[in-house]
Amino acid sequence: MAIQNPPVSQTRSFSTVFLIEMWERFGFYGMQVLMVTYMMKKLGFVDTKANLVWGAASALIYATPAIGGWVGDKLIGTRRTMLTGAVVLTLGYVMLWIPSNNPTLLYTALGVIIVGNGFFKPNAGNLVRKIYEGDDTRIDSAFTIYYMAVNVGSMVSMIATPAIRDWVGNRYGDAMGWHTAFGACAVGLILGLINYSLMRRTLAHIGSPADEHSVPVKRALALLAASLVLVAIAAFILQSLLAAKICVYLAGVVILGIFVHLIRSAEKSERAGLIAALVLTVQTIFFFIFYAQMATSLNLFAQKNVDLSWSLFGLHLYTWIPEQYQSLNAIWIVILSPILVIIYNALGSAGKDPSVATKFALGFAAVALGFFMYGFGALSAVDGQVSSWTMVWGYGLYSLGELLVSGLGLAMIARYVPARMGGFMMGAYYVAVGISQYLGSVVANMAAMPENISSPVESLNIYVGLFNKLGFVGVGCTVIAVVMLPLMKRLSRSHAEAHTILPAVHSEEV
């Protein structure tokens, strides 16, 4: 519940959410960057099983915010739920810190992380929406900067945790290296919690009505019991790939049904916005199939078919660890985010800010070019290995597309969805993303390596074949997004005509 004259500036309130989000993403991406190779190298999973287990975990990680958004809106408050999620996530990373290669412990730890993320993600995003409620131009910029927070944290952790693993592993044993790296994720989130405790006053006036009341003991205990049940369910699903497949496809049907129900039962003035949100959510599902390749096929591509030595004009600069190439995504996001914010603000001031639908179309075009880049780099491969610079430019285009699509996905919900269902719809958006994460792992398995293939030359052809197919799918998504532009313009105009937005009161600019 944002108020007209907040006791602190919007920027200070935003900074508090920005920093806790940054540290939370430090933990999450530090874990993600290692997880598929950990399952293969330490637990003995084949690439197809590792991809699908991580795809199922990712789907649940993105799906549980549908519940967490409701908990924040109705039960214990937006701020309180976000903080609870951060604590639960820390516990999950601590479990991964335990030096054991027992798959059951891994599944349970991932279950805890899944539940913690469900509490954290929708409520952190919803707090940003509440801080800038009523300012369409500024909210796009705010969410772009917020998205940069995700990538500052992930950039540092995706470079650091593989290096920690190798440094500790070389001195104290391979097993200790892996688990110490996971422990660094827990330490990062602990630092984030300490920082939040020092800055929490800046959010005292932002939240849902439930934040203003103490939580009854019975409600707290019921929530704890439900959380433990969800952890057990998640761990079971991760151990059963069939159960994971059934749950993912069932979730897709449920989310579509929810959208249809909300559109049919909504007030006439709300329908155009909800239909626009549905169209953009479907487009987002396709985008995140591309995004899921980072931890799966692109990660394994770096393991087998990338020259890890960085050279410039014939001079050797440094050598990377294969998992560290995933950080290129975050590095590009950090570079490009401020540039896009400047462009958005300049176009907004001139009344020429492109629609979210237009940005989505441009984003898909960039992603398509990014995947074609790997095939282009393969033309000059030496002994089946492409240059590290191929990865730089491929990830650069891919990351530009991510900013235009995923970076504005949350802003799309904030703009088109009525405030009374904001938390829930943030959660529904993440369920859609979760579905595409699992589908992305299915797509990644199209490049699964047969047991008789060990030559980089042979594996290069398999990976490039997948990336070229994804490039053509990206072209198709671009064409569809362009064809949909007239419909999206009509829906946006109908939504705007039905909602007279009062100017937001700014005590300080973002």
Characterization of this structure:
The chain has 510 residues and is an all-alpha fold. It has one domain (10-210, 219-312, 319-498): Up-down Bundle (Growth Hormone, Chain: A), CATH 1.20.1250. It is built from 18 helices and two strands. The chain has helices at 10-41, 47-63, 65-75, 78-97, 103-131, 136-172, 174-199, 217-239, 241-265, 268-291, 297-305, 327-349, 356-378, 388-405, 409-416, 422-444, 456-483, 485-498, and strands at 309-312, 315-319. A two-stranded antiparallel sheet has the order 1-2. Helix 1 runs antiparallel to helix 5. The chain starts with 9 loop residues before the first helix and ends in a 12-residue tail after the last helix.
